[in-house]
């Protein structure tokens, strides 16, 4: 069987074919829980596991300068890498940024790109925080609601009970459920308001100083 053409270039192969040539040289180790896949790997860490991904963007292939600013590119880099983590059921906790640019790249474009990275990172952190907060509040609210109605009798008709007594018990059940729901919503919104007020402090620290 003939070997690979020594003059063949990357332009002549697809991504899957190229990866198939690279992966045999990188067998991984005992710390690799889930190896090469869709841009993301699952690796072991002390006491837990972490997802790692790297998804580069290339000028003229992933963006064009006449369509996108440096800020647009930076925001897209964050979005596509965080999307890889989310697709594996993970939560992004950090970014490792590498910039490879032509010498003719202007410093203004680099500033825009970094600003886009920072803005997209803050927005991603906010969305993750909202999802985690809503999940925690929902779980806490269900536990609280169940505890509030745990000792209440069911509204099934008892043996020998009159219709009037059953109607009264139904009305009492409706009152208990309404009171429990109101208490859960009130405490839930109060907790959300407190968390939002606390979040204002680090948000104020993220303000960029004005030049001049």
Key structural traits:
mainly alpha; three-stranded antiparallel beta sheet; 4 helices; 53% helix
Structure commentary:
By secondary structure, the chain is mainly α. The protein folds into two domains: 97 residues, no CATH class; 61 residues, no CATH class. 53% of the residues lie in helices and 7% in strands. It has four helices and three strands. The chain has a three-stranded antiparallel β-sheet with strand order 1-2-3. Helix 2 packs parallel to helix 3 and helix 3 runs antiparallel to helix 4. The longest helix has 43 residues. The relative contact order is 0.06.
A few lines on this structure:
This protein is mostly helical and 212 residues long.
């Amino acid at each position: 069987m003939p070997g690979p053409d020594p003059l063949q270039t990357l332009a002549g192969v697809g991504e899957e074919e190229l990866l198939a040539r690279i992966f045999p040289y990188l067998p991984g180790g005992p710390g690799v829980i889930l190896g090469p896949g869709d841009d993301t790997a699952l690796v072991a860490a002390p006491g837990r596991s972490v997802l790692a991904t790297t998804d580069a963007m290339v000028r003229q292939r992933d963006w064009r300068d006449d369509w996108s600013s440096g800020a647009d590119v930076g925001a897209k880099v964050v979005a596509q890498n965080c999307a890889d983590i989310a697709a594996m059921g993970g939560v992004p906790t950090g970014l490792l940024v590498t910039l490879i640019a032509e010498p003719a790249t202007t410093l203004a474009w680099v500033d825009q790109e970094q600003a886009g990275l920072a803005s997209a990172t803050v927005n991603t952190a906010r969305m993750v925080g909202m999802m985690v907060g809503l999940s925690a509040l929902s779980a806490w609210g269900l536990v609280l609601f169940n505890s509030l109605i745990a000792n209440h009798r069911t509204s099934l008709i008892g043996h020998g009970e009159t219709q009037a007594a059953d109607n009264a018990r139904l009305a009492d059940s409706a009152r208990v459920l309404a009171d429990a729901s109101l208490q859960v919503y009130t405490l839930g919104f109060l907790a959300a308001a407190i968390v939002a007020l606390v979040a204002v402090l680090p948000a104020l620290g993220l303000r960029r100083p004005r030049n001049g």
